[in-house]
Amino acid sequence: MNAQELVQKHKLLECIQCGMCTGSCPVSRKVDLNIRRYMREVAVTGKIVKYSQDVLWSCTTCSTCGLRCPKGLSPFEFLIDMRSMAVEEGQIPPTLRDALESVFKNGNPWDRIRSKRTEWAQGLNIKHISQGAEILYYVGCTASYDPRIQEVAKSLVKCLQKAGVDFGILGEEENCCGNEVYGVGEKGLFEFLVEENMKLFNKYGVKRMVTTCPHGYNTFKNRYGQTSFEVQHHSQLLANLIENGKLKLSKELNKKVIYHDPCFLGKQNGIYDEPRKVIESIPGVELLEFDRSRERSLCCEGGGGRMWVDIPGPRLAEIRVQNAVDAGAEILAVACPFCLLTLEDAVKTTGFEEKIKVMDIAELLALAL
């Protein structure tokens, strides 16, 4: 892609240089991620801008810049295309390169073999989608392999089984959804994953799907360009089950809970109410709110490949944890595996282990069954 193609694709000449994108960027406090300036330089000079590694790979693709742009542009999509060029030239951090290679070889970015993908499900009596099921539970790479996020998957399974939901999983056949692959600019690998996954979904006649990860939800809903199946985030499905009386909550959880809006669930897909309905349905829970919540939520820095790239500077997850503690919360509730991992790590680095705990909404719900 040349500079002129970038200008046309991203409508760079429509940018009014207001600076809202840079001003609202959560990581601009760490690095000089002045997207407005970079877009202008390409539009005016007709040349491709070369970025420093920290700048290029600092973007979390949270989409705050696009949400705030008065002209309706998507600066983060422009940056993803700049990353694509860097990937083609081999200019990519080694940790990210290794993650992409693992996706191609093993179907996941965590460098784990495919045969280990279903170890978390042992003893849970979960059927394979080939046995026939109304809903496919797309587990995702992180919930399949990370010991901490496996607990989220187990909690969701407990809730679905309690509600009598007819669901199945793909088991070892499941592949990476490709959301982070797209976000770091490896679009060739992303298209390969789309093709392989759609073959798999069509093979088993998938009509409905639920994910625990907003990143998977976002890419299936917005990047795959398909209409053959309906995808829900687990917060949506759980809220529906509670509302329809299929999930009965009997145990009290007398805790002050504050909810962190994941960027890929809230800002990119407008899902704000359902996770809160799930939390508020739990007996004894007092739901608190961050000052920066909903569309103003502070990014945890987990998206856009940042789970595999560390950028020096103040960690936004630590700021988020501090805000939660200051609000008097005992539990910091999340609805995203990346948010859970980054925020839980921040609890440790800030020394707040005795004050606050990070939990997914499915884990909270499972405690109340």
Structure notes:
- The protein is α/β, with parallel strands linked by helices and 369 residues long.
- It has three domains: 3-88, Fumarate Reductase Iron-sulfur Protein, Chain B, domain 2; 94-240, no CATH class; 249-368, AF0625-like (Rossmann fold).
- The protein is 44% helix and 8% strand.
- It has 17 helices and eight strands.
- It has helices at residues 3-9, 20-24, 35-45, 53-56, 64-68, 75-88, 94-106, 141-145, 147-162, 179-183, 187-203, 214-222, 234-243, 273-280, 316-326, 337-349, 361-368, and strands at 135-138, 167-168, 208-211, 230-233, 256-259, 286-288, 331-334, 357-360.
- The strands form two sheets. The chain has a four-stranded parallel sheet.
- Helix 9 packs across helix 17 (361-368) and helix 15 crosses helix 16 (337-349).
- The longest helix is centred in the middle third of the chain and has 17 residues, at 187-203.
- It is globular.
- The relative contact order is 0.12.
- The model has no long low-confidence stretch (mean pLDDT 95).
